[in-house]
Structures are given as C-alpha cells and as structure tokens.
Design a protein that fits this description.
Layout lengths: L1 H6 L26 H16 L6 H9 L4 H9 L7 H12 L5 H9 L9 H21 L7 H10 L4 H13 L5 H11 L7 H63 L1
Helix pairs in contact: 6-7, 8-10
Length: 261
C-alpha cells in the first residue's frame, strides 16, 4: 500500500492561456466622408494600443495593410514614406480628412439649433458631432479646445421647446456641474417618447395630414361656392344679353314694318 502511494505521480495544475481575440479593423477606401476616416483611425489607434511594443515602422505597415488600393496609390503618388507612421497619418488627414475651415466649423457648432423634424436625440447627436469636429481641428492647429460646458450650454440654447429650455436652466441652477450627457439623459427620461424624434415625427405627420384634409375640404367648399356664384352671374349676364337682343330684334321689326307700310 505504501509502495503504491509512493509510485503515484504528483499532479500539477494546468494553466490554460486564452489568446485575446483580435479586433477586426475594417478597410478604408476613401469613398465616404471625413467622418469615415475618423472612425477608421480610431479603430487603428485602438489596435496599436493593444500592441504597445510595436515600433513605428510596424505600425505603419499595419496601417497600410488596411488601406484600399486607390488610397495606397494616392499616398505613393504623393511620395509619402511607406514606413513613416506620422507621415502616413498626416497625408490621410490632408487628403481624406475634414477640409472645412475653423471659422466654418465654429459657425456650424455655435449656430446649431434643433430643427422642426428632429427629436432631442437626433439634435444632440448632430450637435455633439459638430463639437467633436471643431475640437479635432483645434487640436491640429495647436489651439485650445472647447470644454464640455460649451457643448452643454449650446445644447440647452438650441432646443426649440421654450418650456424645456426653462426647465433645464432651472435644473442647471440647482446642479451647475451637470454634464451634457447627464442633461441629455434627463430630457429623454422626462418623456421617453416625446423628445426622441419618433413620436415627434409621427405627430407631425398626423397633424400635417389633418391640416391637409382641412385645407382640402376648405378648398372644395370654396370651389363649389365659387362655381355657384359664377353660374349665377353667368345666368344674370345671359338674361341681360337676351333682353338686349330681344329689344334690338323688336326695334328692327318695328323699323321694317314702318318701311313696308
């Protein structure tokens, strides 16, 4: 029994290493707008962050491997170094990035207002995109970026519902450090469907349909009344013409009789 126990092989715990799944990075073909480039570069930056030991030439090769043929041909035509990560990024931004001026981007952000067809969800998303576009260009020009309070305040001022603006300003007086995301979430939670754009669009279509029917009915009533009045006027005119013609005929008849007799 002791011999059997001594002959047993000691068991060792097994360590199973599960490799981290590689997050796929899509191709960039340069056919969409500048926002498509920004999303692509965000994915590339995230992939680089998972490889902290990679040198810049390896990162440049990884970037090139996700570019379409037309984009790579354009970069070669510009003479951009294929192993220069910084030069590749600058060339991509210069060729396919946002070409709008700072003044244009600033105006787009500061003049943003909620349109009649937009719910708060759509408006706030559009405003946030304008904010990100402006700050991205600010960084590229080594200028100070707008802080998050500017986005929050512009969000409130751009709402077309006056009562909603007043309520949010009152909320800000009680919680002055509320963020843009917190205010947005609050608005959508107050009335989940009123400000999300879905019911807004449905109610707008419904009201437009009712108004269209009312206008159509009014138009039909007006046309029928107008036709009746027109027929009455034509009848009176016709009677007057008949009377006039009858008088002329009577006068001619009397003249003819006078000549004969």
């Amino acid at each position: 029994m002791a011999a059997e126990e001594g002959s047993r092989t000691p068991q060792t715990s097994q360590i199973v290493i599960i490799p981290q799944l590689e997050r796929s990075v899509r191709w960039f073909d340069g056919q969409a707008d500048h926002q498509d480039l920004e999303r692509f570069l965000d994915e590339v930056e995230a992939a680089w962050a998972r490889r902290p030991d990679q040198a810049d030439p390896e990162k440049a090769a990884y970037l090139l491997s996700h570019l379409g043929n037309d984009v790579r041909d354009e970069l070669r035509c510009q003479g951009v170094g294929q192993d220069d990560k910084t030069a590749l990024l600058e060339a991509l931004q210069e060729t396919y990035g946002d070409r709008r001026s700072l003044s244009h981007l600033s105006l787009a952000f500061h003049s943003a207002r909620q349109e009649g067809y937009e719910g708060v969800r759509q408006y706030s998303t559009r405003l946030h995109t304008a904010f990100m576009d402006l700050n991205r260009q600010q960084r590229r020009h080594n200028l100070a970026e707008l802080d998050e309070a500017c986005l929050r305040n512009q969000f409130i001022e751009g709402l077309h519902d006056e009562h909603l603006r007043i309520n949010l300003k009152q909320l800000m007086s009680l919680h002055p450090h509320s963020s843009f995301q917190e205010l947005r979430k609050t608005v959508l939670s107050w009335t989940p469907h009123k400000y999300d754009g879905v019911d807004l669009a449905c109610s707008r279509i419904s009201s437009d349909h009712v108004r269209e029917k009312a206008d159509h009915g009014a138009m039909n009533t007006f046309s029928r009344t107008d036709l009746e009045e027109l027929l009455a006027k034509q009848e009176e005119t016709l009677k007057a013409v008949i009377r006039e013609q009858a008088e002329i005929i009577s006068s001619l008849t009397e003249t003819y009789r006078f000549i004969l007799f």
